[in-house]
Amino acid sequence: MKRKTNKALSVLLSAIMLVSVFTIALPETTSVQAETTGTNFTYSLDGDNAVITGYTGTEKDVIVPDTIDGHKVTGIDEFAFFMNYGITSIALPESVASIGDYAFFHCTMLRDVTFLGDTLSFIGTSAFEGCQYISEITLPDSISEIGERAFLGCTSLKNVTTGKTVDKVGAYAFGYARNTSNWNYERVSMTVNGYSGTAAETYCSEYGVTFNSLGQGNAAPDDSGMLPEEELDIPVLNFTDFNNYTDSDNSTLDIRDVISRNT
């Protein structure tokens, strides 16, 4: 009995330590399981709208629907396609207005991303980080904010086209990758096709990325994400091999619960 008690206490303490070090704030939404949708997508409800939280299918070419169970699909949640190694293309409907943090993080076989329509306004932190085979991205004119490291490590990415209303681009959003030997940021050759006077131009100037002007933009850049490199305190995404950790009851810790940004 004492041995079992000590083992249980050890597992509990380990879990507490993990939670205290690796924390993520997940949205408070009501999850609807895939088997009740009749699709390969899981989603949560934001009011009467659906936010995609996961994909359970095996198709390589994925088309996200604009409605599920009568609910308009308005967003892709954080971690929704996190480290999905199966998908090679993704098409997002016009109804999607936001893509959450780490939504397509390290989808290493993903090559093509299609944005249908001009509704998308926000791309979160590390949303497409590590998608090494994406070679070109054309963002809709509606995009206004591109998060930190959104396309970091997309080493095949040679052209990014942005719209006239981009007013914020986060640190190392594109044009950079990590050196795996020392984890320093290194510039990757690429071109941003965007509009003068927008945050896209400001970002390229600050980070040494080639900028090709398509004309005059409408945005007033927010420089909050444009600090010179030496002034940036860049959070680092930590990987820990806890996704295979199991206790005596064979319960598995979710990898999302042991990933964080250290600030």
Automatic annotation (TrEMBL):
Pfam families (alphabetical): LRR_5
Q: Which residues form the signal peptide?
A: 1-25
| Keywords carried by this UniProt record | Signal
Record bears the keyword RNA-binding: no
Q: Kindly give the Gene3D superfamilies that the UniProt entry links to this protein.
A: Ribonuclease Inhibitor
Database matches in SUPFAM superfamilies: L domain-like
Name of the protein this chain belongs to: Leucine-rich repeat domain-containing protein
The record lists the lineage as: Bacteria, Bacillati, Bacillota, Clostridia, Eubacteriales
